[in-house]
Specification:
Elements lengths: L1 E3 L8 E5 L5 E4 L3 E5 L17 E9 L4 E7 L3 E8 L1 E6 L4 E5 L2 E6 L4 E7 L6 E8 L9 E6 L10 E5 L6 E2 L5 E7 L4 E5 L5 E9 L2 E3 L2 E3 L4 E5 L3 E6 L3 E9 L3
Parallel strand pairs: 14-15
Antiparallel strand pairs: 1-2, 2-21, 3-4, 4-5, 5-12, 6-11, 7-10, 7-12, 8-9, 8-11, 10-13, 14-16, 16-23, 17-22, 18-21, 18-23, 19-20, 19-22
Length: about 250
């Protein structure tokens, strides 16, 4: 799984998850792909990346949705890619999240919630991401923020941070960034401290990270490094998730 860079000057470690190696389940109303073990798909080598536990790529058909169900002691992020997703929970929150929104639910001591496609005909596609919190049994909380897609253009737009100063707040040493880059654009991403890793997930197009090619829905985790070099091989959109490797 993990390998050391060929360059003796760099000690970075890598784990590559091609799109076609993800777990998959099609329930009719839900067509879902799992980058890490989830539900009935179990791969002992794909349990998590540091504190990143779940990365699901969910397609919910019109009229479909997840009924009321519980969560606890997990930071749960939803990022809609298309369509409108309706959220309701026992904290009194009722909201609709759309493309451009980022939602977080800190489950803490326990939350009951439901998610459903607001449309009876149009599909919803969204990322469901779980991160282990840095403290157990916290008071549950909900947050949601909207971002202008143009703010991702040829830059890295922060959408999640530990203090909520950049995007929604997560109870973890974690930063998420979205990028929509033109072909040929390149820049580096510097990790915030030692002991952190970054997991890149390509939404559309193709990019390279430290010279390693990644295509649509591929994932790459990198750790034991201070920074990574990113370039767009073609017009591309991608998500970076920086998390602690130990927590």
């Amino acid at each position: 799984m993990a390998s050391t860079s060929d360059s003796t000057a760099v000690s970075a470690q890598y784990v590559y998850h091609p799109a076609d190696t993800r777990g998959h389940a099609n329930h009719g109303w839900l067509d879902t792909y799992h980058s890490f073990s989830f539900a009935n798909w179990h791969n002992p080598e794909r349990m998590h990346f540091g504190a990143l536990r779940v990365l699901n790529d969910d397609y919910v058909a019109g009229g479909g949705g997840f009924g009321t169900h519980p969560h606890d002691n997990m930071e749960i992020v939803s990022i809609p890619l298309e369509g409108d997703l309706e959220h309701q929970d026992n904290m009194g929150n009722q909201a609709v999240i759309r493309s451009g929104d980022v939602q977080i639910m800190s489950a803490g001591t326990g939350v009951m919630h439901s998610e459903k496609n607001q449309s009876a005909s149009d599909a919803v596609r969204f990322l469901q991401i779980w991160v282990y919190p840095n403290e157990r049994d916290l008071q549950p909380r909900y947050d949601q923020e909207s971002f202008d897609r143009s703010a991702e253009r040829n830059t890295l737009l922060p959408v999640v941070s530990p203090d909520g100063a950049q995007g929604v707040q997560m109870h973890q040493s974690a930063w998420f960034h979205l990028g929509s880059w033109d072909q040929g654009h390149a820049e580096s991403y510097r990790l915030h401290s030692a002991g952190q890793g970054v997991y890149a997930f390509v939404l559309e197009g193709s990019i390279k990270i430290d010279g390693r090619p990644l295509n649509r829905r591929d994932g790459l985790g990198v750790w034991d490094t201070e920074s990574i070099a990113i370039s767009a091989s073609e017009n591309a959109r991608f998500l970076l998730m920086e998390v602690p490797m130990q927590w």
